[in-house]
Design brief:
The chain is of the alpha+beta class. The protein folds into two domains: 5-79, Gyrase A, domain 2 (2-Layer Sandwich); 90-227, Cyclophilin-like (Cyclophilin, Beta Barrel), CATH 2.40.100. The chain has helices at 24-40, 66-79, 105-111, 116-124, 221-227; strands at 5-9, 13-17, 45-50, 54-59, 90-97, 128-133, 140-143, 158-161, 165-169, 172-175, 180-182, 185-189, 210-215. A seven-stranded mixed β-barrel has the order 5-12-9-10-7-6-13. Strands 1-2-4-3 form a four-stranded antiparallel sheet, with helices on one face. A two-stranded antiparallel sheet has the order 8-11.
Length: 230
């Protein structure tokens, strides 16, 4: 088994890097260590931020040191060699695909020699894992999109992508938590509010959670909005 690499990041953080590839297996190791730290609460650790294949651990240099923390992390992993993170939540995200809600659906279909209905079916038929949160507060990087509908980003990003837009970029998919510039191909839109600063916790979706997209018709929008307080 390949051992993780450790490296300092400034004087208040260290990076635990697993294999340099995007895969559910590697990402599971990241979330496993993340949960171990959440449960064990090693002295000096302030926060841990999971990514695709690494975990950034912030610490208080007045309470611990980089060297001591590396040893502690190595001990925790040795004590839990087959540890798996607890089952995460499964979240169903309703999506209105196409039309003004999904301006790139037609392009994605044409790019992959499919019909729009086939793209919708393929995008919504599998369960995605949230590899990480990044780019924007609450923006989930989900994977992996089936190869049949993988499509490159836009050559020139849009200046404004509406909050709730559901897009794909190559084999990733995600949901924009707020209005933002962006270059992902937009397939649809969800009425769910995936990030609300005044909510606790503010992010609806978390690393390690599972997500399924549920196609809905425009006529169901008002019902969805009532259910989610809009």
């Amino acid at each position: 088994m390949q051992m993780p690499c450790y490296q300092p990041v400034g004087d208040r953080a260290l990076l635990v890097e697993f294999e340099k590839r995007i895969s559910l297996e590697v990402n599971a190791k990241v979330h496993s260590l993340h949960q171990i730290l959440s449960q064990e609460k090693p002295i000096g650790v302030e926060e841990a931020v999971p990514a695709y294949c690494s975990l950034l651990v912030y610490f208080d240099p007045l309470k611990t040191s980089y060297e001591r923390l590396v040893y502690r992390l190595q001990d925790l992993q040795a004590e839990n060699p087959s540890y798996h993170a607890a089952n995460r939540r499964a979240v169903i995200v309703p999506v209105i695909y196409g039309g003004s809600y999904g301006p790139d659906l037609e392009y994605v279909a044409h790019h992959n020699n499919l019909t729009e209905d086939e793209v919708i079916h393929i995008h919504s038929k599998i369960t995605y894992s949230i590899y990480m949160i990044g780019f924007l507060a609450g923006f989930p990087y989900l994977g992996e999109v089936p190869e049949e509908i993988a499509t490159p980003r836009l050559k020139a990003p849009r200046l404004k992508v509406p909050a709730g837009s559901v897009g794909i970029a190559d084999r990733q998919t995600g949901v924009y938590p707020c209005d933002s510039p962006g270059g992902w191909r937009i397939l649809g839109w969800t009425p769910m509010n995936v990030f609300e600063p005044s909510r606790h916790p503010p992010a609806l979706l978390n690393p390690g959670d599972h997500v399924m997209f549920k196609p809905i018709k425009g006529g169901e929008l008002e019902k969805q909005q009532r259910e989610h307080g809009k």
